[in-house]
């Protein structure tokens, strides 16, 4: 029997994992936590055999939680993530198991099929080696085999797509998701606007409102509203308007484009 602890800041995510675990005769859920700090205390007090660990949590995320665990008591780890193509590449390169949200029971069982033999045949040293390899890969920017182009993972028409961030024209917040505009297509990813901004740090992204980021490489036309806000027309045809609080930032950027005479 494998004792399991589930760590996910979303109740729906914990419920899904709990139900899938309940369907397996060799799994026993001994703890559920919605934040990393409380989970770390419990795991240190009574280490499980298997830990399902959400990556995107505040203030202590899943990667930092795993880093803080004692190497000699490290359980088998399955990271759960909804977003971040870099991280997925790192997991695959380092043979660390992960579940990409949303996942179904078939995908869950495929992951267990890899976890079980490692639990039976591997020790803490092997698990620590896998984790160390993952952390090193993530710290290198998770660009295996000389990969230089940052990418995002997002959904469109029911399928997951890997997006080159240089093609992203705009990102808008939509509750627990972001809408990623590429040309005339809108992709969806479970993320915050802050996380998306970090993932797109290689691009000249400008926040024009609390809920919208624009890639300045794709601004093709600029107009003004009667109250002075800026209307930006993007290459793919989308039109967005700056808010009053961010008007100054847009004006400052536009001023850098003006040709001045000496």
Say which CATH homologous superfamily of the largest domain is assigned: Response regulator
Strand order of the largest sheet: 2-1-3-4-5
Tell me the name of the CATH class of the largest domain.
Answer: Alpha Beta
SS strand fraction: 25-35%
Low-confidence stretches: 142-148
Kindly state the number of beta strands.
15
Radius of gyration: 22 Å
What is the CATH architecture assignment of the largest domain? Answer: 3-Layer(aba) Sandwich
Report the sheet with the most strands, covering strand number, pairing sense and barrel closure: 5 strands, parallel
Write down the CATH topology of the largest domain. Rossmann fold
What is the chain-wise order of helices and strands? Answer: EHEHEHEHEHHEEEEEHEEEEEH
**What is the 3D shape?**
elongated
Task: Tag the structure with descriptive keywords.
262 residues, 2 domains, 8 helices, 33% helix, Rossmann fold, five-stranded antiparallel sheet, alpha/beta, five-stranded parallel sheet, OB fold (Dihydrolipoamide Acetyltransferase, E2P)
